[in-house]
Amino acid sequence: RDLHSFPTRRSSDLAEQLQGELTEISVGGALLKSTIPKPSMGTEIVLELLPPGGAAPMPITGRVAYHTSSATGLKFIYRDGGGSRRIRELIRRIRSA
């Protein structure tokens, strides 16, 4: 099932706001479709995800792990102990929406 469109921001020299769509998400990572050129392998991207019913976007950092013909695979980076818990809660809210 396709997930809603979420704003994304590349965490690089330019740090520009971009629009994209997650077609898959799990605790380990996500598959991002976007109209932008595919970022280089290893590039860090900050996804700003607005959970269903949420008031503010949730920032989640991922690193480009692979590319398909139409999308970019991201592996989530957890910098704090609660990172995977927040992703699990986000997935739960998406599935129940």
Descriptive overview:
- The protein is mainly β and 97 residues long.
- Helix content is 14%, strand content 43%.
- The protein has one helix and six strands.
- It has one helix at 83-96; strands at residues 5-10, 17-25, 29-34, 44-49, 58-67, 72-76.
- It has a six-stranded antiparallel beta barrel with strand order 1-2-3-6-5-4.
- A hairpin with a 6-residue loop joins strand 1 (5-10) and strand 2.
- The chain is globular, with a radius of gyration of 12 Å.
- It starts with a strand and ends with a helix.
- Mean pLDDT is 79; it is low at 1-12.
Radius of gyration: 12 Å
The geometry reads as globular
Q: What percent of residues are in strands?
A: 35-45%
What is the N-to-C order of secondary-structure elements (H for helix, E for strand)? EEEEEEH
Helix content range of the residues, please? 10-25%
Number of strands: 6
Spatial strand sequence of the major β-sheet: 1-2-3-6-5-4
Unreliable sequence segments: 1-12
